Amino acid sequence: MSEKFKEFPGTPLSSRDIKSGKVLTFKWRPNAKYAWTVGIAYGRFLEELKNGRIIGRKCRECSRVLVPPRMFCEQCFRPTDEWVFVKNTGRINTFSLSYLDADARRIKTPIPVAVIDLDGASPGIGILHKLGNVDPKRIHIGMRVRAVWKPAKQREGSITDIKYWEPI
Amino acid sequence: MTVAIVGVGYTDVRSTTPDVSFKESMFEAAVKAYEDAGVNPRKDIGSFITAAEDYYEGYSIFDEFVPDQLGAVLRPVCTVGGDGLLGLITGAMQIETGVFDVVAVEAHSKASDILTLENIMTFAFDPVYNRAFDAHPFFVAGLEMRRFMHETKTSREQCAEVVVKNRRNAIDNPAAVYPAKITVDDVLNSEVIAEPLTRSDVSQMADGTYVIVLASEKKAKKLSDKPIWMKGLGWCSDTPWLESREWGSTVYTHLAKERAYKMAGITNPRKQIDFAEVDDWFSYKELQHIAALGLCEKRKAGKLLQKGSFNRDGQTPVNVSGGRFGVGNLLEASALQSVLECVLQLRSEAGKRQIKDATTAVAQSWRGVPTGTGCVAVLSNEL
Ligand SMILES: [Zn+2]
Question: Domain spanning B3-115+206-223: which superfamily?
Answer without folding.
Answer: Thiolase/Chalcone synthase (3.40.47.10)
